[in-house]
Amino acid sequence: MEICTVGGYEAVGKNMTAVKVGEDVFIFDMGVSIPALIDLQSDNVRVYTEKQLRRAGAIPNDAVLDKLGWRGKVRAIIVGHAHLDHVGAVPWLAHRYPKAKILATPFT
């Protein structure tokens, strides 16, 4: 088993962890940085692009998974609970993992 800490380990927010078991990778959480989102809201923009969120540091930088060669091996995105720092980036990042199922409770 290998673990890659993508985000959320240096500050609250942008939680994302990848765990490789054999040849399969599982992502736990895809959160946003609440302070970065609040800063963006001061621009009076209501819909954000992935590029805008990345530039603002609001979503995890998952490029490390490309460097490890893990992106195409992601089988599931597992969301622990419905707090934005754990689930908020799913709408912007999940498409980058086309083979992955999103696993969460209906509320999440």
From TrEMBL:
InterPro entries the UniProt entry points to: Metallo-B-lactamas (IPR001279), RibonucZ/Hydroxyglut_hydro (IPR036866)
Pfam families: Lactamase_B
UniProt-recorded name of the protein: Metallo-beta-lactamase domain-containing protein
PANTHER family: RIBONUCLEASE J (PTHR43694:SF1)
Domain Metallo-beta-lactamase: 15-103
